[in-house]
Each structure stands twice: as structure tokens, then as C-alpha cells.
């Protein structure tokens, strides 16, 4: 046994010094002077607000995408000891000493730096030379726009990192499967592909484009495997299940986990939760939960309730009435019923309280035991303060003449009898015997006489005039006009009424609600609601000074001024390396032309390049040209405010194509030694120009040194660029 100790234990490690050097240089280029400027830079004013809310555990909704990227930025703040106390209200505002700016900017910078070695490894895995891989890495390293975007509290560098990691992982997995099916490394790279894809989607929905590209490539590769007669049916099924697990199930599970962590961290009520349903708001600490926690769960005859419209946008509102009546005639000459106004009021108020009454009984209190209201039951809704009944009839609504007016009935002793019976329909019921529940049930009120549905129509038009106190209109809408969320209501505040006398009841309505039963939403219910809000809640897109169109990006006809020093004139711009951008466009054009030429020639049975070179050409194009296309072309279909930084993921793929084209031209079109030498010299000269442009624009990439007015004017290579010149 001791024989093994006679010889020393030797560990041999292979270190790719190219990779090490690229990583170190990438870290230096992104981390150098990271705390400068110590001021809010462009969209830091936007993302910083969310970081502060994470630090304070306050719930928020960001319609720009999923929460994973925000959580990574917040992690930087947490590691730096940030307490969340900073007012993110102005670009250029100086950071206070409690803001750990280096820590907040660290993760985006690290992600941007690691993109350099990732680019190198991707080309190596695509079977291109180390020289071409080194060129790709250096182009990423010297791309001014990628440097600028990675040095601040922004998400694009993190998104690009996970996209490149997903591509590299899949390529390593694909290359391994030729020799070692289901080995440890095979599983590692396959699983890492799914994890990286889910992280990319979790940072921004733009990551979905690259995820779909990789799924398509994986599908094509598996289709080729099906044609391999050496693989048994069982083996093919195992391959299919492994890919389904790693590339579909795990990414979905991880995506859900991002929201789980997000909702776990943000458990406190805040200003953003007002757009959520009452049930969601009640699940948060503080805010509505302080009012509704423990309310009676089942709505019964005699219950005192407030009814919130489920739509909740552009503002939440509650069914409301007051003593004022509709004017006898409107400004356009149409007449009204002159009944008591019913509106949707965007603030909590005692006039929002209603009593659920049994039409067959006179009492307005809950019996003992309570008699719950179920789906399909007929009720009357009595306004708590004025004791008038919710009513609608065949009279045109004030702002929506094709809908019925809704009012609280006043008996004027004329030929207009009360029509105040409403059928309760629980929209989200599980059975036709479901009980109407506080917060949880979403209900429609269908008028028995006319079949009109109670609807808050003020969301779609102007508010009522001065006589209606600018509140939102409520109407009776015919069911034939279709279903809409503005027809759905839920009980938000609820108590069991105990006072039959009106004066005692008014005191009761002014008092806090009772606490009896708590209500909690499941994670999936909260996730579904939050996901729907993220996808459907869109802020009004306004024209921004630095917004641009997708066509402007290819030729970089636009830029973005990120920061300007108030006195010295030092400034930071999102500007790309002009030579790199032009070369990337030329590379894409050359690839398209050569591919078409090769395809035509191959159709004629003429093979200009070997088969292995053709397969390499196609696979590289699928990754690089496909990555550019899926990350760029969808923006032509988007109706949103666009900025130059949206193009950076597509640009990254296009940059990877440049050394691929150069190697292909050098190997297959430069056949003589003289041509190869001339081509190499041209490549060196071209790369020198890339470095020269990088150095020229470094002052507006890093923000220092400050430049004179003349130097700034010299940097305006295009008339469309907005270089800021301060007046002397």
C-alpha cells in the first residue's frame, strides 16, 4: 500500500495564456476608474430607483422586463452596503457618500469584461484559428460602445454576457457529443446552456431572441441525429429528453425562480402596487393589507363592501355615489334621469361603501348565521351613506350615449319605476355554486331588467364634467358588445353590517374594518398577475431627445450623451468604433454574397471549397448572422421608444463575423503567397485603424480627460452626432 508514496503526486495544468491575457486586459478596460464619474449617468436614474426599492423591500413593477437583471444590480448595492437612501431624480446628480457607486457598477463591468474571453472561446469552438479568435476578442475589447455600456449601472452588458455564455456552452456541448454522449462534461455544458438562456431572458426579454435561435439550432442538430442509423430509438429518446430537460424545463423553472425571489424580497407595499389587484395588494405588508387583513371571507346578505374595478388602469377606482344628481339636461341638449350620480372614484372614501341586500327582505344587517351570496344570486346594492339603491334604466349615459346611465334611484313619483335588481356572476368561479369571496372573487353585475353589465367606462374617455367632479363615468353596457375587464369588480374592504339604524350604520361605515380571516395568494397566482402586468402595462412612449430608429443603428447615425461635467466639459457618449461598425456591415454583406454564390455553384455541382469548410461556413453563419438578425430585425416591428444601446447584442454577433470572413478570405481566396502577404498587411493596417479610432474616442468613452471645444468639434465625424459644446 505504501508503494504509491514512492513517487510524487504530479498535477499537470494547461493554461491558455491568450485567454488569461484577454481576461486581464478586459478587466482593466472595464474596471479602470469605475467610480468616475461620481454622478448619475443616463439610465442609472431609472435602474437606481429599483435598486433602492430592493434595499427597502418595497414592491415595484417594471414594464421593461423580468426582474433578474434588477436583482443583479441590487446585489451589487447589497454587497456595497447600500441602504437605498438616494433620490434618483436627475441625470448628472452627484452621488451622496452612502451610495457605493463602485459596487453598484461592478457586476455590469465584470460581465462586459468577460465578454472578451467568451468571444475568443466561441470562435475556437466554431473550429476557427486561434488568430481569428484573438481578433474577435480584441474587436470586442476595443469596441467603445460596449465599454461605455458596461461601465455603468445598466443591463446590456449583463444581457450580452449571458447570451455569449449560452452560445459558448452549446457549442462546447455540441462538439463533445461527437465523442462522449452523456458524460459529465456533456451534461455540464448542456445544462449550462439552459441556465444561461434563462438568465438572458431573465435580464431582458431581448434575450428571448437568442434563446429561440439556440433552440432552433439544437432542433436542426437533433433532426440530423434522427437520420443517424447507428443510434437506436432508445438512445434518440434519451437525447430528446435530455435536451428537453436542459433547454426547456430548467429555463422555465429558473425563470419562475427569478420571480419567486423577486416577490420574496419585495414584501412591502409601495406606490407601484396600486396597479395590482386587491388580492395582490392585500398580500403585501402595509398599505391595503393593514385594512383588509382578516376581513370576513364570504360576502353575505347585509355585508358592507367597497367595490374596486379590476382593470385598474390608468388608475384604480371604486364604485362611488354621492348626493348630487345628474343635470336635467347635458350641454349637448340630451336629457338625463336627474337621478343620484354613480361614478368610479380613484380615492378611498366613505361614499365608496355599499350594502349587499336581499331583495326579499328589508334588513341591512348580516343574519346569524350569515347567508352567503353565491354565483347567480340576485341582489340589491344599497349606497351606505345615502341608502339609495343602485339602478339603471333605458336612459343614455352622460358621456357614452350608446350605453345606459347608472344611478342611485330617487323616487320622483313619476312614471320611472326603480330597476335595481342585479345578478352576481363570479367570473373566476370554479363551479356554479361558488360563494362570492372578499378580494378573491372577480364578479360582474348583470342588470336583471335590461341585461346590461355594470362597467367603468371612464377609462376609455374623458372624465365627467364639473357637475360630476371630474370622476370616472359608470354605465350599463350590453353584453352583446363583448367582455372587458372594466366590467369586472372585486370586493376590497368588507365587514359584516350590524347596525339597522341609519345613524349607527354611518358611524359603522366610518370605522375601520374588522379583522377575522387572513387571505393569501399562492406564488403562481401572484406570478401570473405580475407577469401579465409586465407584458401589458406600457408607459406612454414619448419622443426622447436621443431616441432613434432601427435604421439609424447600422450606420451609427445617432449617439447618446450619457453624462456631462457641469464645469470642465468632460462628457461620456454612447458612440461605437466607426471602423468596427463599418467592417461589421461589410462582413455581413460579404457573407450574404458569398453564401449566395456558393449555393448557386453547388447547385451546379461546382464545389469551390471543401465540404468541411462549407459546413464550417454554414454553422458560423447560423450563429453570427442568425444572432445578428434575431437581435436586430424584431425592432422594426416594435412600437416603443428605441435607443442605440438596443443594437448592441446584434452588433456583438456581427463583430464575431468579421474575423470569420477574414480567415475565410485568407484561406480560400488568397491562393498565392503574394496575395496572402498583401492580405495580411491589409489586415494589420485595418486593425491598426480600429485601435486608432478606439484611442481617439476614449475621452468620450471614459469621460476623461476633458477636451477643449476644438477637440470636441473634431470628434463630430457625422453631422447627426450630438457632441455637447458648452458655451464659454
UniProtKB/TrEMBL annotation:
PROSITE patterns (UniProt xref): MIR (PS50919)
Chain ranges passing through the membrane: 15-33, 67-88, 100-120, 154-174, 186-219, 240-261, 578-600, 612-630, 642-662, 674-694
Reaction equation(s) it catalyzes: a di-trans,poly-cis-dolichyl beta-D-mannosyl phosphate + L-threonyl-[protein] = 3-O-(alpha-D-mannosyl)-L-threonyl-[protein] + a di-trans,poly-cis-dolichyl phosphate + H(+); a di-trans,poly-cis-dolichyl beta-D-mannosyl phosphate + L-seryl-[protein] = 3-O-(alpha-D-mannosyl)-L-seryl-[protein] + a di-trans,poly-cis-dolichyl phosphate + H(+)
Limits of the MIR domain: 296-359, 370-427
One CC-aspect GO term: endoplasmic reticulum membrane
EC number: 2.4.1.109
Pathway membership, UniProt: Protein modification; protein glycosylation
Keywords for this protein: Endoplasmic reticulum, Glycosyltransferase, Membrane, Repeat, Transferase, Transmembrane, Transmembrane helix
Entry superkingdom: Eukaryota
Membrane topology field: Multi-pass membrane protein
Subcellular location: Endoplasmic reticulum membrane
Enzyme class at the top of the EC tree: transferase
GO terms assigned for molecular function: dolichyl-phosphate-mannose-protein mannosyltransferase activity
InterPro entries: ArnT-like_N, MIR_dom_sf, MIR_motif, PMT-like, PMT_4TMC
Family stated for the protein in its record: Belongs to the glycosyltransferase 39 family.
Protein name from the UniProt record: Protein O-mannosyl-transferase 1
Organism (species): Alca torda
